[in-house]
Amino acid sequence: DGGITQSPKYLFRKEGQNVTLSCEQNLNHDAMYWYRQDPGQGLRLIYYSQIVNDFQKGDIAEGYSVSREKKESFPLTVTSAQKNPTAFYLCAVRDSPTGELFFGEGSRLTVL
Amino acid sequence: RKEVEQDPGPFNVPEGATVAFNCTYSNSASQSFFWYRQDCRKEPKLLMSVYSSGNEDGRFTAQLNRASQYISLLIRDSKLSDSATYLCVVNLAGGTSYGKLTFGQGTILTVHP
After folding, report:
1. Residue from A55, A52, A3 nearest A25 by CA
2. Partner-chain contact A41 B43, CB within 8 Å
3. How do residues B46-60 score in pLDDT, each as one tens digit?
4. Partner-chain contact B99 A31, CB within 8 Å
5. Measured between alpha carbons, how far is residue A97 from residues A93, B57, B73 in Å?
6. In sequence order, what are the residues at sequence separation of 6 or more whose Cβ sits closer than 8 angstroms to the Cβ of residue A20?
7. Residue B41: helix, strand or coil by DSSP?
8. Which residues does A contribute to its contact with B (CB < 8 Å)?
9. How far apart are CA B97 and CA B109, in angstroms?
10. Which residue pairs from B93-97 have beta carbons closer than 8 angstroms and sit at least 24 positions apart in sequence?
11. b/e for A2-13, b at 16 or more Cβ within 10 A?
């Protein structure tokens, strides 16, 4: 969606390095989400945040960390503790009245 | 049982066919339901929300059956451009689950000439 920017689109890293994926939105939505998608799989929830300075673990939070210091920004750090970090990472915002999710274009992380 | 489960695909149908997907959910308190479409190597995009009374958008019809805890998506007069993965999404409401949206694993549809 035009109001959600994820960067970088493609990222290669060596095993053992931490990586931070950026997600910025100008849609003024409170709730933001990070999902991970593996080939041929559905989306799995990593973390979500309903409001600034608050966030909740999703189903697969181990090896990841987030922060929500500003409403517009919800960065995701993939730490060296994440055993299989290679995946497609998707950030989303939720429109509170309708509950609909809108996604950024995603970041593809490959760990060599 | 998975929280949200979809028909195992893939579905291969000819142009003009009618095809239907189902998606079951485990939490009876779930409040919101959606269908998303995802093209290969792209982000998911909202196809339609699913309302209690059912809703239609052109060739697409979504239904909710609360008693049996499933939602469905019907596509009529399939087009080649309908080929994609269709994902159902459920908002598992209540307690610490509020705000947590869960995706099904997706159903692949291929429409052929």
Report:
1. A3
2. no
3. 999 998 888 999 999
4. yes
5. 12, 20, 23
6. A75, A76, A77, A78
7. coil
8. 31, 33, 35, 41-45, 48, 50, 56, 58-59, 88, 90, 94, 98-106
9. 31
10. B93/B27, B93/B29, B93/B30, B93/B31, B93/B32, B94/B27, B94/B29, B96/A56, B97/B27
11. eebebeeeebeb
User: How many CB atoms within 10 Å of residue B51?
Assistant: 12
Per cent of chain A over pLDDT 70 is 98
Q: Which residues in chain B touch residue A94, judged by CB atoms under 8 angstroms apart?
A: 99, 101
* B56 close to B49: Cβ distance less than 8 angstroms: no
Residue range A18-29, pLDDT digits in tens: 999 999 999 999
Stretch A66-91: mean pLDDT, rounded? 95
